[in-house]
Amino acid sequence: MAPTPGLRLARLLPPVLCLGLAYAAFNNAYTPPFRGQANSEYSGWETFTIPFNGPNTPDVAETSSDDATLTQTTPGAILTSTGNIYNPAGPSHFVLSDTLPADLQEVVLQVSVFGVPADYGSFILSYTDTSGQLVSLPPDSIQNLWNAGGSLEDRIDWDLSANPDSITDYTIQFDASAVHMSLDAVNLDVRFDGGGIGTNYCQANVNSTGTTSSISATGSDAVSDNNLTLQMSDVPMNQFGYFLNGLAQGFVPNPGGSAGNLCIGGAVGRHGAQVGNSGSSGSIAVGIDLTALPRPSGGPVAAQAGETWYFQGWFRDSATSNFTDGLAITFQ
Fold this sequence. Notes:
Shape: elongated
CATH topology of the largest domain: Jelly Rolls
Structural class: mainly beta
CATH architecture of the largest domain: Sandwich
Largest sheet: 7 strands, antiparallel
Number of domains: 2
Helix content: under 10%
Strand content: 35-45%
Distance between the termini: 43 Å
């Protein structure tokens, strides 16, 4: 899968330059909106210590979990003076292994290299399902973040919120596209089940940033608490959006010329009085009044214990609009 926008391959540099030049940090790193939340983990590598057949543990100070390790398995690799993994003998092969406390929902991997790019078709997330079968998944999107001075930075995303399997142990593998790639830095952000409310359903379409937008909820699913916050994430920056609600699932592709899918069936309520802007974070969060859920006719209604309501985010997306995936919440 090629990154978007189009990525021109960096010119192959002599090995001596690869040994002497390294950035050991990202020039244009992306921070997912879920980083720092209770149901997330961040691992960062900027200085590697083992170039071949040994696990490198995260070394960035902000790392929240040391469960993830990264191993390079192609012979001939060496460490540069600045802690890069550089291989003058052949294309490097990397294996990132991780263990989570709950079901994996989302992965945002960022890779910074020097010299030649990674092989974008080689990125694979793998896990073993309950029947013992190995499942291998290509990324949902790859986006180039930086391409200057021989440095290449890419973001690779997997959205697993609709995956029926429970994933707590997984690996990500990727290769260099050619000899002389120098791995400079890696960021791994994961979101897992356990901090949110409700169940995601209905796959979102890719938006203009090259990723899919998602909806999540925090607070309480008890109607008596009236404490529910909805958030849409990975929305294009500085765009307006609001939330929708309904009492049934549905699927309408490209409604009204939208680039996304409407995942709510029947009468659709719009939280138009709570329009938000995604700003620089690419996210919109709104507190929902469970005693006054807007409906298309008859005025607002209160959620009742035992009811399942369906929510979705709508947002402007370039010259059109788009949607997040759906979120089903059964209230108590």
